[in-house]
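Lab meeting, action items carried over

1. Structure of the two-component assembly. Owner: GW. Status: complete.
Input record:
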Amino acid sequence: MDYVLTTEGLCKQYGKSRALNGLSMHVPRGAIYGLVGKNGSGKTTLIRLVCGLQSPTAGSFTLYGVGNGDRALTGARRRMGAVVETPAIYMDMSAEDNLKEQYRILGLPSFDSIPELLQLVGLENTGKKKARHFSLGMKQRLGIAIALAGDPDFLVLDEPVNGLDPQGVIEIRELILKLNREHQITVLISSHILDELSRLATHYGFVDAGRMVKELSAEELEAACRKCTRVEVSDTGALSRVLDAMGLEYKIQGARIADVFAKPNVSTLVTALSAEGCELISVAEHNESLESYFVGLVGGERRA
Amino acid sequence: MRKLLSAALFRTTRHPVFLAILLVLPAVLGIATGNTLRYGVDDLFLLPMLFAFGAFVALSWGREHGDGTLRNKVIAGYSRGQVFFAELLLNTALCTLMMLIFAVFTTVFGFSVLGKVPATVLLRVGLCLLLSAVGMGALLSAVCCLISNRALSAIVGVLLVLCLMYGATSLQHVLEQEPTFTMEYFDENGEFTHAEELENHLYVHEPLRTALDVANRANPFGQLNQCMAALSEYVYDWGDGYEPHYDVTAEKAELTARLNTLPLISLFSTAAICAAGWALFRRRNLK
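Predicted assembly:
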């Protein structure tokens, strides 16, 4: 497989604290690679190392096959764009001027493609409005537009939907999908909002305590996610007693819903529930969510 | 790096009012200095300009760190060295331009006095002034590039100027001490009886003296002081009936001679500051 980015045993230490602890990852060309991890698991540190903002304490990485010790790496970085944590924009400039500034930095000969880029990120009507007056979503989109200046084929986005309202989240998601599908841009996206990531990613890397716990494709993840039977009943207390008596593994998901990690005999279940005075409302096959899979891998809270 | 400089220049010119203040200020200070030259040269006129240096450099780096726009340059494939030196060049160029404006206005408005100063001395003073501005810009840039907080950067920039000023003034004071001083004794009627030459405990002996002298001359504010001191000897008007208590000719010769080595020391210290700043900046973790 052709990889845009690979890391091998990457370590980063700040004083006594180790942010990355031998992390290895592989980002295939053309993928939307979702980097999943709790807060403080090392996602942003990894992105900073790849972007050249910090140097690794140990280990190595390659970007388009160019190693981190190679002088050609700065050239390879010209093929990537990134938004790390907050969008890097001049707050006292308009969207257009920010892009002009980035074009100058990149040495692009003409500003002709700026209107097209602004249209791509939905900022074509911002006129002379300064970036400091933009909403968070607009700033994020301007950050992405700046990252896209120079026509990169690898985009790194660190928590791009953090703090956005639902409309903003949808806009960013659609933009990322558009860039990947229509412009063939490989995207590395870090997030701890798993539901959002599951709508985008073609590949996943699960990070915990500075290590890569698991890397897999969306198909592999789908296969790996545990299948269960989602049961809706009038009384989950009664359901618990019945399932315990049947010796089945289950998880109560709400006042009326439970996931049973087996295929129970529905007739037996209905009979047993009736005996407890409980009504069976519905039974459906259900796949374990990315969230449950992640929690199963590394443990933790609802939001990774 | 040319592209980085072009972009930086574009950013700077986007604030015409701020830029105008930076360029009008040295002109006003130059006019004030030119008009008061006949009473000597007071380096206090330079202080507001040096604060402006500090504010400009600190805000320039502070904005790059604060808005996170340094990241765009590194990710765009520029080395840390290119990013550092592009910003440093812009900062030192602006500081030098301000000093040049100050020097031109001082010369024009103080021409009646400065016209009496030998051209070679004037040129040497001018060169040293410009080099001290380069050194000041480089030092401020090398320090402020390490501070990621905009407000802290501005505070440090101004404090650094103050420290340089107090450092230079203190060193100057120490170095001006004579090895001995004369104690005069008088009798009960107030009649002079005798005089005694006593050792001055404030006098600094070698090799510390040379070290302090080099430190003073490496300090951009110390360089300004020496330029001003040399110029003062030529332009100060003692007035009728007054005679200086020292040999003016010898003092002029000594101070002018010091201007010969000052550019070299200035260049060397600026190079050392740039190298140190670059070495620290390239190791710095950027957010």
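2. GW to write a short summary for the group page. Key points so far: Residues 2-182+202-238+245-283 of chain B form one domain. Chain B is about 70% helix and 5% strand.
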